[in-house]
Amino acid sequence: MQQDRLTALMARGAAFLGSEVAVLGGAMSWVSERHLVAAISNAGGFGVIACGAMPPALLDAEIAATRALTDRPFGVNLITMHPDLAELIAICGRHGVSHVVLAGGLPPAGSIDALKATGARIICFAPALALARKLLRSGVDALVIEGMEAGGHIGPVATSVLAQEILPELAEAAPIFVAGGIGRGEAIATYLEMGAAGVQLGTRFVCATESIAHPAFKKAFIRASARDAVASVQIDPRLPVIPVRALKNAGTELFTAKQREVAARLDKGELDMAAAQLEIEHFWAGALRRAVIDGDVEHGSVMAGQSVGMVKAEEPVADIIKTLMAEARAALARNSV
């Protein structure tokens, strides 16, 4: 049976996560909170709380609230440049969070050991083969390889290229989850057959019934096509701005203006480089909140991956996962003929 084939291909990833299917929910600030995270876990996937810029007390409350909605495993995504990273790790430890995803750069000294001490399994993003090897050597348990088709902060390489570079080399060494531009089960089947332990999806879950995203935010997703999700442009080469993929709107121009303002303050010595980067991150957090929570999809940041064109309607998480698995099984059946 093809169901057995899909189950077999996902077995390693599902066992690592403690879920029924090896589908990680992408951590999206303001969107990946208790309701969506719990819904993904309850539907057999693996939900991940997006800590983002949350202060420690807020993360503490969010983990507790998520646990009240599901008795299944879920993870927490922490940004490595967060000024309170050590305290956030300690909070995850106190709650017995089983998996922590570290995003936004190489884990700072001591963070991996601190997480290991809590018993959590560590997942990191690897945008290149050399970095993937380095992370595994440092004690990371699993990797997400995310291509530039993804929404939010992105790297420069396409998902299909990263998968070809990294999976043949490292798929046996550790569970690797593929992310970026995945909107249908056929793509999931392809990456599983290439050696992936599972996949991560964000954009596909934004319009879930359980998602708290504003109706205007969801409507923008449903109306959008792949070409509407564009990457931000870096204005000043001295300012290391990680590109962000979002639906093109007036907010895109606001970010250009924000970069110019931060660069000018850098010139005047009002900011150092670390503070400049934090200003940019705070801009995104605020712009994203305006769009997701307040529904200002014109001036806020409507972060979306290129798979947004495959989001056609608002539907329950369980139905989304069921559809993806059915598509993957059908693809595997065709491939085996």
TrEMBL record:
Q: Does the keyword Coiled coil apply?
A: no
**Protein keywords:** Dioxygenase, Flavoprotein, FMN, Oxidoreductase
Q: Which GO terms describe its molecular function?
A: dioxygenase activity; nitronate monooxygenase activity
* InterPro entries per the UniProt record, alphabetical: Aldolase_TIM, NMO
Recorded protein name is: 2-nitropropane dioxygenase
